[in-house]
């Protein structure tokens, strides 16, 4: 009798523990699956500032890159304004905006596509409208630009979100895992797994792509770098990857400025001058138009060539 009571009591304790575990685990699962409702929430989800403590030089390079300001264009321009004001995706007021209003998110903010709600698009549109308002003060414009600047392609976007392309075989990137060119179980910031594409051109080609994006309700023509690289560079015997040209090593580590930085005219000029060549041939002569009328003449032949792995300019 007492033995049966003990057995029943033990079974009840096991059931109770399982129930407790269920209630503890379920909220965590829901939190992981929860999407960002605000720009601040999305920025926090992909915040990579902790990387700076160990990778200070790389982080400083990234801060100057266009990845750190994907919506601010060159010289701090608010490049999304035409999207909401004059394109096929324009809206009359911010509350009409959804994630589909911004096809640019596909590359300029890929984390938003799966991990943000439409409310993030609304908040972004509010900032864009505030910046362009007729009565906008300098402080209002500064505040709006600061809001847009929070949306970045951070370390985690490349080293997690975009680290796997062949998801049907390899699965989606694991939460909490950092992907790189090699495995590192001792990494203090979390487990590091090797991404088979991290050092290949296809990794960059996910965003710097092949041209038209037909998946949208209104297809848009955008970056064609990867298509140009495949069709006009590899086909003619080229063999270097995007990373070999744009992420050359600095102090033994890949340069995460990923140049050129178009806000730095000197750096951009130096970068382009190494790949764009101008050949000039001249021939000077005199033309005797008529007796006593001898006119100096010159023939100038110019030829511009480039040996980059893609057409220039492009994106």
Which residue ranges are poorly predicted, with pLDDT under 50 across at least 5 consecutive positions?
Answer: 15-31
Helix content: 40-55%
Helix run count: 14
Residues in β-strands, percent: 5-15%
Shape: globular
When the domains are counted, the total is: 1
Number of strands: 8
The average pLDDT value, as a whole number, equals 89
Terminal CA distance: 79 Å
Order of helices and strands: HHHHHHHHHHEEHEEHHEEHEE
Assembly context of the chains: single chain
Structural class: alpha+beta
Largest sheet: 2 strands, parallel
Descriptive account of the structure:
This protein is α+β, with helices and mostly antiparallel strands. The chain has 14 helices and 8 strands. It has helices at 2-33, 39-45, 56-63, 81-85, 105-108, 110-115, 118-132, 138-149, 155-161, 167-170, 201-205, 225-233, 242-246, 265-273, and strands spanning 178-180, 192-194, 212-213, 220-221, 249-250, 253-254, 276-290, 293-306. A two-stranded parallel ribbon has the order 1-2. A two-stranded antiparallel sheet has the order 3-4. A two-stranded antiparallel sheet has the order 5-6. Mean pLDDT is 89; it is low at 15-31.
Helix/strand layout:
Layout: H1 2-33, H2 39-45, H3 56-63, H4 81-85, H5 105-108, H6 110-115, H7 118-132, H8 138-149, H9 155-161, H10 167-170, E1 178-180, E2 192-194, H11 201-205, E3 212-213, E4 220-221, H12 225-233, H13 242-246, E5 249-250, E6 253-254, H14 265-273, E7 276-290, E8 293-306
Parallel strand pairs: 1-2
Antiparallel strand pairs: 3-4, 5-6, 7-8
Helix pairs in contact: 7-8
């Amino acid at each position: 009798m007492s033995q049966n009571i003990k057995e029943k009591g033990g079974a009840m304790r096991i059931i109770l523990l399982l129930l407790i575990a269920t209630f503890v685990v379920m909220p965590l699962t829901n939190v992981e699956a929860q999407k960002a409702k605000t720009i601040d929430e999305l920025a926090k989800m992909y915040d990579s500032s902790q990387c700076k403590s160990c990778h200070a030089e790389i982080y400083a390079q990234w801060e100057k890159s266009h990845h750190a300001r994907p919506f601010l264009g060159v010289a701090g321009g608010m490049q999304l304004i035409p999207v909401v004001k004059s394109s096929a995706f324009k809206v009359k007021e911010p509350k009409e905006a959804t994630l589909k209003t911004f096809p640019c998110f596909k590359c300029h903010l890929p984390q938003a596509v799966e991990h943000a709600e439409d409310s993030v698009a609304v908040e972004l549109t509010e900032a864009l409208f505030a910046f362009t308002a007729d009565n906008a003060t300098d402080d209002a414009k500064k505040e709006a630009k600061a809001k847009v600047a929070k949306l970045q392609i951070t370390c985690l976007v490349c080293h997690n979100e975009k680290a796997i392309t062949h998801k049907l075989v390899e699965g989606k990137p694991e939460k909490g895992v950092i992907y790189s060119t090699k495995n590192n179980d001792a990494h203090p910031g979390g487990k590091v797994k090797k991404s088979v594409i991290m050092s290949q051109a296809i990794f960059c080609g996910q965003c710097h792509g092949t041209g038209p994006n037909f998946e949208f309700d209104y297809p848009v023509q955008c970056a064609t770098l990867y298509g140009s690289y495949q069709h006009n560079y590899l086909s003619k015997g080229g063999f270097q990857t995007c990373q070999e040209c744009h992420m050359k090593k600095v102090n033994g580590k890949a340069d995460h400025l990923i140049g050129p930085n178009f806000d730095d005219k000197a750096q951009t000029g130096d970068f382009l001058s190494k790949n764009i060549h101008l050949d000039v041939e001249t021939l000077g002569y005199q033309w005797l138009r008529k007796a006593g009328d001898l006119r100096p003449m010159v023939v100038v032949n110019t030829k511009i060539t480039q040996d980059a792995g893609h057409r220039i300019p492009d994106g």
